Amino acid sequence: MDNLSQHTVIKCQDLSIGYQNKKKTSVIASTINFSITQGTLVALVGSNGIGKSTLLKSLTAMLPTLSGSLQIDATEITAYSALALSNKLSVVLTEAPASKNLTVLELVSLGRQPHTNWMGSLTQNDKDIIQQALEDTDLASLKHKNCFELSDGQLQRVYIARALAQDTPLIILDEPTTHLDLYHRAAIVKLLKKLTVEKNKTILFSTHEIDLAIQISDKMLVMTPQNIAFDSPCNLIKQGSFDVLFPNEIVVFDKKTGRFSVT
Amino acid sequence: MMLQKIHVRFFILLSLLLVVLVCVNISLGSVDIPALEVFNSIVGASSKSSWDYIITNYRLPKAITAIIAGGGLAISGLLMQTLFRNPLAGPFVLGLSSGASLGVAILILGAGAISGVFSSFLLGPWSLVIASALGSFIVLLALLAVTLKVKDTMAILIIGLMFGSLTGAVVAVLSYFSDAEQLQQFVFWSFGSLGNQTWQGIVIISLCFFIGLLLSVYSAKSLNALLLGENYAKSMGLKIKKNMLVIILATSILAGGITAFVGPIAFIGLAVPHLTRQFIKTSNHFVLIPAVALSGAILMLVCDTIAQLPGTVYTLPINAITSLVGAPVVIWLLVRKRKLIF
After folding, report:
1. Which CATH class is domain B5-82+89-337?
2. How far off is chain B from A241, nearest CA to CA, in Å?
3. Are residues A176 and A249 in the same domain?
4. What is the ipTM of this complex?
């Protein structure tokens, strides 16, 4: 591997995350340590309510961290202005956009906002990047459709295209595969994989599709009540990280097949 | 991308329609003036001085007021729909007009209670604007505080209703203590009227309109980002608090300033953005803001032309006409599309 792909994009040291108000602090997870290098596809898994969304909110600066260090591109995340951070990091959220009346092209073009002037006018360069984002996500033929006309799978691709149009080295996605059938789940994850390989993007996504994530992602973050493990899927299987992911009585992890099965 | 040919054509069409409607609006009324004479009079080459007098002192000020009130209320409705992510938002529905009424009620009815000499100073046109804009600004801040806490679109509609009742209650209490003359002044104001504006008043609402318009155009990029929701907007580098404050300021200057002069007017703010979206297929606020302003002005002129009942000496309250036109439009949109989208 060359130097560029070894570049560390995101790095956490002794990070604590959670919610804080005047009266009390509730820690969701602490002593989080991991670093992700450029061009890697990382899946974040864990059971419901474990704090995946909280972790992603903290990593995207929507929620302040409690303690420890969180660096994006070797700079503390708190040192970035909103605009500077939007050049490093783009997001795909679980919440649907407030308006569904936008056309695909309009929505994807909004991704260029951090790079445009006060009127948001698009230069030829902006238009080229938008067109490329549409082609990478296979949406070029749908670009004049309104978002309310699209299926869930197509919509998810539109949100990913918007993040691509924002043109950031790091993309963080919160459960991009929910509400999708098996085919479309696989299609989204394969698309993410393609983007890391072909565009050298660093992508972190949370998901409940553990089987899929084990097969396709380069690294995985496994959140359990005890700790957050970070390694390649094979090593995590060896270490038995998936065995403690859920309470044992209903589902068990089969190390040979890399799948969960119902007991 | 910014301004497609179809948009340009749409704008030319709307502008022509506006010019025609201004002439129609001025020519019709208790005395019919031929449209050509209207044109001549505005240009300054009229033949008949009585028509000239009617036009410059009554009909032209009223037409200008209609254009500004319609355009301004429609823009404020558009801003609120995007800001609150709610297709039912509008200055009347969400209680902005009630807030403005409350400000005006306290000013008119309260001023009488203080002293006679003081009240003539207090009731100048500027203090009316300030009281009204302040009233709607406070309501908007309250609404925003609620939306930040409660992520439920229903909640803000209820808040709007509550402000309506609250205003009614305060007005009832105030009217109990104030004399008949002031009460009458307030009641007439609350019927809403485009007529009887002085040229000074027109200068003031035009100023409110242009400040509001400038702030809206300045916020158009952030409004576009807000179509994706606050979190997405933030992730695209938007300074959310600052931008929301500018949008709120624009909305309350528009809705408050206009309401101060023409009284609370229903449905223009709610219905016009939806009607405009039927004809112009974009969510880009750089296109929507001028389109909505033009359509609002046009609809207001139509309502005013109906209100002055051509050929008779009677004039109906403008608020009744906007409701008669606006309410069926909203119902029709709901039934036809099964939901309002913005």
Report:
1. mainly alpha
2. 32
3. yes
4. 0.92
